[in-house]
Design goal:
- This protein has 136 residues and is mainly β.
- It has one domain.
- Helix content is 10%, strand content 40%.
- It contains 2 helices and 11 strands, in the order αβαββββββββββ.
- The chain has helices at residues 5-14, 26-29, and strands at 23-24, 33-34, 36-41, 55-63, 69-78, 80-83, 87-93, 96-101, 108-110, 119-122, 134-135.
- The longest helix is centred in the N-terminal third of the chain and has 10 residues, at 5-14.
């Protein structure tokens, strides 16, 4: 995963524990419960076939107990994202946002079949296939 110094500094303003070396890969995210998602636009340095900039997603998981802290998951590059459930979106800085559950939910669950593809989906339209609040 590559981030600019400005992107890292913007994340660290709100989360001083963030280190690029501590971000786990997307395969490790499968089935995990995450508290929120950090989303940032890669700007014009990388555009999709549609001509729009890619979005980078990082899932953040708060852990408690013996190994309390924050764990990060690289959720890949995406052309766009869709929210099928209510979310709250806060700005962390230029081109950098935090997406978190809103209205009673406290976390998202990453699909056990998660892969990084064009569409990043939050929540699921088909609860018989995947539970609600699942990222796919």
């Amino acid at each position: 995963m590559e981030l600019t110094k400005v992107e890292i500094k913007s994340i660290q303003t709100y989360d001083s524990n963030f280190k690029l070396s501590g971000v786990c890969n997307g395969e490790e995210a499968r089935g995990q419960e995450i508290s929120d998602i950090i989303v940032f636009s890669l700007g014009r340095r990388g555009v999709h076939d549609s001509g729009y900039p890619f979005l980078r997603m990082i899932g953040r998981q708060y852990t408690q107990g013996v190994e309390s802290g924050i764990k990060y998951f690289d959720l890949g590059w995406h052309d766009h994202f869709v929210c099928n459930i209510r979310v709250n979106i806060d700005s962390y800085g230029k081109n950098l946002f935090r997406v978190m559950p809103w209205g009673g939910s406290k976390s998202f669950r990453v699909s056990p079949h998660f892969i990084s593809c064009s569409t990043f989906e939050i929540g699921c339209l088909y609860p018989d296939i995947q539970p609600e609040n699942t990222l796919s």
